[in-house]
Write a structure and sequence with these properties.
The protein is mainly alpha-helical. Helix content is about 60%, strand content about 5%. The protein folds into three domains: about 100 residues, Fumarase C, Chain B, domain 1; about 250 residues, Fumarase/aspartase (Central domain) (Fumarase C, Chain A, domain 2, Up-down Bundle), CATH 1.20.200.10; about 90 residues, no CATH class. Helix 3 runs antiparallel to helix 8, helix 4 crosses helix 5 and helix 10 runs antiparallel to helix 11.
Length: about 450
């Protein structure tokens, strides 16, 4: 079949080269966006009398039929036609004849594909944001259900200070909120129409780019035709945002994997989101969390792949940019599937409150409270720290925990302290609730977090 650019050539493309350069096997997913862009372009050509309005109308009707035929399976893509654009144009010619050749007036595949990708990416960002919201709602619900559950907070994977489980869960809410905000901000830079930039220099035809932008729902048009077709920084920004989302999901996965282990037993994952072993009958594996953790590296790879592709390209368009789509599609699919399945896993999970409480016996996680109480009595913090450390060492050697600290012994160390304050040393919940400062782990503060979170989720903006 003759290529659309074949006039310059005297030999057919080698079959191996044809297969190597083809992109239809993956850019076919841009079909709807390519046709939407082409319909808007055809309407503009007719409106501006660049082509006869009746021809523009024929093209629009033909494109709608091509879309219907491809979606129903009546028509098929031809791999020899390189990409989605040429497949659509060829099928359109089959519908309306030579008039189809007028569609490509005042545009290039360079600005055409950049438009397709931006249309696609706006939808992907919107979908990812909705999936983040779903996971956030699940986190808020789990936090509300476990508002008074106290658990060990960790630093260096060692028991550090008591925190509310709800506070721990809400930490991931705010991570995801920033992820959502990053995507929303990225969307502003995606929402720019490149169509009308031509191959690199613009077009001599009197086109109306603002009309096309309005038709396609873009908020702005590109300022420089070379920049519009040459850069993929908007994809790189999206992939960076995806990588951070996956980093957060991976960290959460690690928590769940640990909590699900026999050593912790803090959480019970539902049978519907776990799998077994082909050899060990007792196993119940947290495969969802493990796969999310594993797929994080895959999304990182997508980002690095694109950054490497664009790092040394001369202006303007180069065929290297064909390599932007596979990492984009892969990252978008991976992030959406990870967010979706994570919500399912977390929603059905149950926390073992009794086991969590048992794990805090004798862990000295209230030692900081003891030091703080001594500071309140006038001791310098370093002195209080040393005094408390000495006591912890003694109790640890005797196999005891601070919850067994005799009241009389502690009162000998302080001049005057009420029982409620002393309770902070013996009761992890009292310790957690003593951190009643904005952002702290006290129940009152967590309730404020949840209230603010719900306001964010219920906001229409």
């Amino acid at each position: 079949m003759k290529k659309p650019w074949g006039g310059r050539f005297t030999k057919p493309t080698d079959k191996a080269v044809e297969a190597f350069t083809a992109s239809i096997h993956y850019d076919s997913r841009l079909l709807e966006y390519d046709i939407r862009g082409s319909i808007a372009h055809a309407k503009m050509l007719g409106k501006c009398k660049i082509i006869p309005p009746e021809d523009a109308e024929k093209i629009v009707v033909g494109l709608e039929q091509v879309l219907s035929d491809l979606q129903s399976g009546k028509a098929k893509f031809d791999p020899s036609l390189e990409d989605v654009h040429m497949n659509v144009e060829t099928l359109l010619a089959g519908q309306i004849g030579e008039v189809a050749g007028k569609l490509h007036t005042a545009r290039s595949r360079n600005d055409q594909v950049a438009t397709d990708v931006r249309l696609y990416l706006k939808d992907e960002i919107d979908a990812a944001i909705e999936l983040i919201k779903t996971l956030q709602r699940t986190l808020v619900q789990k936090a509300k259900e476990n508002l008074d559950v106290v658990m060990p907070g960790y630093t260096h994977m060692q028991h550090a200070q008591p925190v509310l489980l709800s506070h721990h869960l809400m930490a991931y809410f705010w991570m995801l909120q920033r992820d959502s905000e990053r995507l929303q901000d990225c969307r502003k830079r995606v929402d720019v129409l490149p169509l009308g930039s031509g191959a690199l220099a613009g077009t001599p035809f009197p086109i109306d780019r603002e009309f096309v932008a309005k038709e396609l729902g873009f908020s702005a048009i590109s300022k420089n035709s070379m920049d519009a077709v040459a850069d993929r920084d908007f994809i790189a920004e999206f992939l960076a945002a995806c990588s951070i989302i996956m980093a957060h999901l991976s960290r959460f996965s690690e928590d769940i994997i640990l909590w699900n282990s026999h050593e912790f037993r803090f959480i019970e994952l539902d049978d519907s989101v776990t799998t077994g072993s082909s050899i060990m009958p007792q196993k119940k594996n947290p495969d969802v969390a493990e796969l999310v953790r594993g797929k994080t590296g895959r999304v990182y790879g997508d980002l690095i792949s694109l950054l490497t592709t664009i790092k040394g390209l001369p202006m303007t368009y180069n065929r290297d940019l064909q390599e932007d789509k596979e990492p984009l599609f892969d990252a978008a699919d991976t992030v959406k599937s990870s967010l979706g399945v994570f919500s399912i896993m977390l929603k059905s999970a149950k926390f073992n409150v009794k086991r969590i409480a048992e794990d805090m016996h004798g862990d000295f996680s209230t030692a900081t409270d003891m030091a703080d109480i001594l500071v309140m009595q006038g001791y310098p913090f370093r002195t209080a720290h040393e005094m408390t450390g000495d006591l912890v060492r003694e109790f640890n050697e005797d196999g005891l925990g601070l919850e067994l600290l005799p009241l009389k012994e502690f009162q000998e160390m302080v001049r005057k302290v009420d029982k409620k304050t002393i309770q902070r040393i013996t009761d992890p919940k009292a310790s957690a609730n003593a951190k009643n400062v904005p952002g702290g782990t006290a129940r009152e503060q967590v309730e404020k977090q949840i209230e603010e979170a719900l306001q964010i989720l219920n906001s229409k903006t």
